[in-house]
Amino acid sequence: MKQFDPGDSPSIASITDKVRPLAIGMPVTAIHFLGDTAVFVGTEENAALVGATGDISSVAIHGGAILCAASDGERIVTGGDDGKVVALDAKGVVTVLATDAKRRWIDNVALHPDGAVAWSSGKTAFVRSGKGEEKSFDAPTTVGGLAFAPKGLRVAIAHYNGVTLWFPNMAAKPEFLEWAGSHLGVTFSPDNKFLVTMMHEPALHGWRLADNRHMRMSGYPGRVRSMSWSAGGKGLATSGADSVIVWPFASKDGPMGKEPAMLAPLQARVSVVACHPKQDVMGVGYSDGTVLMVRLEDGAEILVRRNGGEAVSALAWGAKGTQLAFATEDGDAGMVEL
């Protein structure tokens, strides 16, 4: 893809003139692609579907704030303060998957490739298998994050002082990975060898799952609120600093004893990162509204959106890697075809 090569020019290459502005009309908390349809999930009540021709349609999915969203490429599942877990497909069809018995907020959702869905409310995590069987697990404290392992039906439940690894279909006692502090988001590496959490303090914490060895990943000036695995899973790109911090995971020890790469520095904090699905390239959004495409190999940059306005709140690539969509906290949005 020639677009990723800034060439010999000393100034940054720009594709801002190729960006199609989108009148989403609402602050956006997440973007996911369902085929060629880009879905912008609002902070309140609605999602906006943008078709391949650029037509925009709004769909009501919750009766209040939308607190979390996840997608498997076939559907987007969201949780809201209305106590509902909702699925949305590319045609705009909304299906209520679950309603909390006490109408508690749905704080986290996660999806498994086989169709299973997980969600949490307060201290309780729920899993519904692809066949419709439902199980629940009470964590020691409020659930801060959920993730399915890439292989097998295993759920990581982040909470205060660590992570619980739960096998909903087995009677085995859940495994507890301890680390002091509040763990607010969790992800498995694509090769299933590592687990990483975003902490309330400005740090990540990781475990090598073969022996539960700790990986301290600190030094951030601010909290990490966004993380994304590179296409081959060899790097974990993160927000939280005025550069993209990319931790190396190519070796069996992961980032232990290694320095992370620091790419695309700006006079603004990185607010969101999204790695390309097939190439070692990432989309990066900043607190000043800038959007860049950055090559992981050498840090080469391409300008997608100039600074100005509110922080970038969401970024996503289409599955083919030929579309990049972005949105800001004040509802400015756009998409570029590569």
UniProtKB/TrEMBL annotation:
<dbReference type="InterPro" id="IPR011047">
    <property type="entry name" value="Quinoprotein_ADH-like_sf"/>
</dbReference>
<dbReference type="InterPro" id="IPR015943">
    <property type="entry name" value="WD40/YVTN_repeat-like_dom_sf"/>
</dbReference>
<keyword id="KW-0677">Repeat</keyword>
<dbReference type="Pfam" id="PF12894">
    <property type="entry name" value="ANAPC4_WD40"/>
</dbReference>
<dbReference type="InterPro" id="IPR001680">
    <property type="entry name" value="WD40_rpt"/>
</dbReference>
<keyword id="KW-0853">WD repeat</keyword>
<dbReference type="Pfam" id="PF00400">
    <property type="entry name" value="WD40"/>
</dbReference>
<protein>
    <submittedName>
        <fullName>WD-40 repeat-containing protein</fullName>
    </submittedName>
</protein>
<dbReference type="InterPro" id="IPR024977">
    <property type="entry name" value="Apc4-like_WD40_dom"/>
</dbReference>
<feature type="domain" description="Anaphase-promoting complex subunit 4-like WD40">
    <location>
        <begin position="277"/>
        <end position="334"/>
    </location>
</feature>
<dbReference type="InterPro" id="IPR051179">
    <property type="entry name" value="WD_repeat_multifunction"/>
</dbReference>
